[in-house]
Write a structure and sequence with these properties.
- This protein has one domain.
- Helix 1 crosses helix 4.
- It is mainly alpha-helical.
- Strands 1-2 form a two-stranded parallel ribbon.
Length: about 190
């Protein structure tokens, strides 16, 4: 019997390497945003106005621009409308179906990890677990509906499940760093009082 996992890391690696051209385009958008933010930051300091967007949030937005460019290009714009149309509603039906389906299953988890990590850093509302994961579900569901309407991909329940799971992983990573940050901030304030 053929072992599906022998070439799986190579398939995933190749798919990840294929998104680098999209990432370069996203870097262009991030660069423009960074220039605008630096101008805003300098203007606020000159006029002694409080900066409403913190540098860490601005940096996160830069990464979000790269991330969304890659995701939209890969999920929607890299496919010819009318070329792919299939619906699969049975959960976990794509796992181990073929090496490519298994790779896509894992890649769909990986694809939404940045969502769960970057959005809570950039936007306070997303620091709520339910807001962040709910938004990830909504985005994933929207992608599936667009794929179905324009026949630019396979509409699968697995995609939504794996995307949401990926965003939960990302959110847990953010939450861990947030706890460490708050712990150090608390220690620093205690030391500062002495």
């Amino acid at each position: 019997m053929y072992n599906i996992y022998i070439n799986l890391p190579e398939v995933i690696q190749t798919d990840i390497e294929n998104v680098f051209p999209y990432a370069l385009r996203g870097c262009g958008y991030a660069f423009v945003f960074a220039l605008l933010y630096i101008s805003y930051f300098i203007l606020c300091h000159k006029k002694q106005i409080k900066v409403k967007l913190r540098p860490i949030s601005a940096l996160s937005i830069c990464f979000i621009l790269i991330y969304f460019t890659v995701m939209i290009q890969r999920v929607l714009l890299s496919r010819v409308p009318g070329s792919l149309s299939e619906i699969e509603v049975i959960p976990f039906s794509t796992w181990k179906k073929s090496i490519w389906d298994t790779a896509f299953f894992i890649e769909n988890i990986i694809m939404f990890i940045p969502f769960g990590f970057l959005f809570p850093i950039a936007f306070k509302k997303f620091r709520s677990f339910f807001v962040c994961i709910g938004a990830a579900f909504f985005l994933s569901f929207s992608f599936e509906m667009i794929q179905l309407l324009f026949a630019v991909g396979f509409t699968q329940t697995d995609d939504i499940i794996t995307n949401v799971f990926g965003s939960i992983i990302g959110y847990c990573a953010f939450g861990s760093l947030w706890i460490v940050y708050k712990l150090f901030a608390g220690i620093k304030s205690i030391i500062g009082k002495k």
